[in-house]
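thought: user wants a sequence for this fold. calling inverse folding tool.
action: design(structure=
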């Protein structure tokens, strides 16, 4: 997690004219932003385009950012709205089979291969879930956001988020088991 005070300082300095510091913000969030966009069903090219568009919107809106919550939640809300705007314009093409970038923290080559394969399979299964389930699961487990932040980003109330989380985990477990896989609670903690 990033240090919020240094992030606030960076944002303040950008607003005051040190525009080159925006690259720090982009570097911190580009992978997660891309992952969220891909999880919403966009292909690689559209995901890159929307990420760029979202970062431009963030940059233009930094002066209006109120340091009342987490910057990441504010950023992700802009990203989700940018994707929904694109989908409303009916220009969404189907997503390709490639998954989001996959960080690895395993030590042996065998563990690395197994982890990547599990991540790919979970990502494939997530793509079959309804968008609201998929989005709340990814915001919670890949971006480590709170329920309140997820509510802010998605526009759902707390009960709807809890419901989508529960149903999403349940659906994901069922999908994995129906395809002969073994569900481990460590995949997505309930």
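)
observation: tool returned 190 residues.
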């Amino acid at each position: 997690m990033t240090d919020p005070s240094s992030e606030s300082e960076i944002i303040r300095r950008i607003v005051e004219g040190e525009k080159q510091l925006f690259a720090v913000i982009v570097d911190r969030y580009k992978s997660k932003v891309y992952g969220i966009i891909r999880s919403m069903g966009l292909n690689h090219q559209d995901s890159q385009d929307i990420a760029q568009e979202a970062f431009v919107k963030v940059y233009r809106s930094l002066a209006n950012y109120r340091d009342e919550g987490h910057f990441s939640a504010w950023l992700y809300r802009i990203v989700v709205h940018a994707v929904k705007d694109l989908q409303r314009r009916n220009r969404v093409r189907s997503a390709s089979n490639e998954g989001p970038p996959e960080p690895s923290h395993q030590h042996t080559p065998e563990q690395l291969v197994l982890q990547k394969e599990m991540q790919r399979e979970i990502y494939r299964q997530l793509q079959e879930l309804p968008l609201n389930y998929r989005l709340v699961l990814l915001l919670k487990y890949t971006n480590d956001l709170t329920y309140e932040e997820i509510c802010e980003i998605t526009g759902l109330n707390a009960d709807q988020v809890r419901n989508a989380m529960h149903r999403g985990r349940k659906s994901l477990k069922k999908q994995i088991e129906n395809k002969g896989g073994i569900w481990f609670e460590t995949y997505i903690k309930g």
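thought: summarizing for user.
answer: Here is the designed sequence. Helices lie at 4-15, 22-39, 44-61, 71-88, 109-127, 131-141, 147-154, 158-178.
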